[in-house]
Amino acid sequence: MKTLQDINFNGKKALIRVDFNVPLDENFNVTDTTRIEAAKPTIDKILADGGSVILMSHLGRPKGVEEKYSLKHIVQTTSKILGKDVKFATDSIGSEAQKAAADLKPGEILLLENLRFHKEEEGGDVEFSKNLAALGDVYVNDAFGTAHRAHASTTIIAQFFPEEKCFGTLLAKEIDSLNKVLNNSEKPVTAVLGGSKVSSKITVIENILDKIDHMIVGGGMTFTFIKAQGGQIGQSICEDDKLELALEILEKAKQKNVQIHLPVDVIAADAFDNTANTQVVDVTKIPDGWQGLDAGPKSLELFDKVIGESKTILWNGPLGVFEMENFANGTIALGNSIAEATKKGAFSLVGGGDSVAAVKQFGLEPKMSYVSTGGGAMLEMLEGKTLPGIAAILES
Ligand code: AMP
Questions:
Q1: Can you give the pLDDT at residue 234?
Q2: Helical H runs in the chain?
Q3: C-alpha–C-alpha distance, residues 256 and 275, integer Å
Q4: Which side of the chain, N or C, has fewer Cβ within a 10 Å radius?
Q5: Could you say which DSSP state residue 24 is in?
Q6: Which atom of ligand 1 is nearest to the CA of 316?
Q7: Any known ligand binding at 61?
Q8: Structure letter (DSSP) for residue 153
Q9: Binding site annotation covers 210?
């Protein structure tokens, strides 16, 4: 894997694909700077070497040029975070960008306008990629969030740098963390899969069954498994067309010696509402008119034990409807169990959408070994797919 450390950037212009797709408020202030901060180590290393930096990113989903999606709104915040003035080019290609890039001196930073102002970016256009490529000497991809897209700046551009290309620090860390969980893992390996649907996680489940020892199933997915086994799930969420599939997964897991742990009790509610009446019931005996919205206390005890004995933990998907305060306890408790195991030396990776939101919301992020920055990209990696943005760096 070619990383930043393998290249000396002295006197070179590094063209870095970053993910600065940050949220802005109505006054165009950046409300969450995580993604800009995440790119800092890569930028710092290049500047420290004596190189200069050209940053390219998308912001939102503009249809052509739309002022509200201009990256000019983030220049000030980016300058503050990087501790250096960031110059701005009002287009990502063309004469102004070319001049700004050519004039760039060692130690300086240039941010290009939103790549998606050109439809050629998402179209993966070769000519557009070539024009971008002409701006720099070395291509660095540090945008994990878009690594699963074969866009011009994430993938196609790499062919114009047969030798001079590498992963940025953030992207390298993402790849490394997933490898630690799925390929070079210390056993026992436990995957916790929650969230709403079996259908959206099935490819992940199939891909990881060969690599894990335990699988904890939680969240809305639970009830498709419980119903398939003959349990009564009341009004709980269920995919009736996936009952067969659920049984097949259980059978496959058995063949592969993977222990599946389903909740044994749930917090059942008489409505999908934070103020609904609740009761703790056996997961196989949920009364009519009630639905399971969170894992119950016995389940959490069971999960805590499995997690406590694990050396490697992957967590994707919440254990309940954590967006509602009264059904967040299972997700918080599980997060605490993983935090505890991590403290004792286990490696924990949280990735893929909602569980990342949950660990952030409940202040658990610093207690995990690694929290992924890319929802869709992480899910595709868990599915065993080769991401085009990663493949493009590895190809020579
Ligand atoms: P996913 O995007 O598939 O990871 O699903 C995340 C969503 O699953 C969250 O918005 C949760 O509120 C939801 N969820 C978790 N547990 C349940 C449940 N028992 N019933 C309904 N939705 C759930």
A1: 98
A2: 34-49, 75-82, 95-103, 119-123, 126-133, 169-182, 202-208, 222-228, 243-255, 297-308, 329-343, 354-361, 375-382, 388-394
A3: 42
A4: C
A5: B
A6: 4
A7: yes
A8: T
A9: no
pLDDT of 376:
87
Residues catalogued as catalytic = 35, 197, 353, 376
DSSP 172-226: HHHHHHHHHHHTSPPSSEEEEE-SS-STTTHHHHHHHTTT-SEEEE-GGGHHHHH
- Tens digits of residue pLDDT in 192-240: 999 898 888 999 999 999 999 999 999 999 999 999 999 999 999 999 9
CA of residue 246 to ligand 1 center, whole Å: 17
Select the more confidently predicted residue: 32 or 291: 291
Please give the distance, rounded to the nearest whole angstrom, from the Cα atom of residue 322 to the centre of ligand 1: 8
Residue 21 annotated as part of some ligand binding site: yes
Decide whether any atom of ligand 1 lies within 6 Å of the 317 Cβ.
Answer: yes
Spatial CB neighbours of 4, under 8 Å, sequence gap ≥ 6: 42, 45, 46, 140, 166, 167, 168, 169, 172
Q: Distance (Å, rounded) from C-alpha 394 to C-alpha 158?
A: 10
Choose which residue among 274, 354, 359, 372 to substitute to test ligand 1 binding: the one with the highest number of ligand atoms within 8 A of its C-beta. 354
Please tell me if the CB atom of residue 220 comes closer than 6 angstroms to any atom of ligand 1: yes
pLDDT given at position 2:
79
Location of structure tokens 């165009």: 28
CB contact at 8 A, 70 and 133: no
Sign of the Cα pseudo-torsion (113, 118, 122, 128, in order): negative
Q: What is the arrangement of strands in the sheet containing 347-350, beginning at the earlier edge strand?
A: 259-261, 214-217, 189-193, 312-316, 347-350, 370-371
Domains of the chain, first to last: 4-167 (3.40.50.1260), 175-382 (3.40.50.1260)
The pair phi, psi for residue 268, each rounded to 5°, is -95, 145
- The answer, yes or no, to whether any atom of ligand 1 lies below 6 A from the CB of 293, is yes
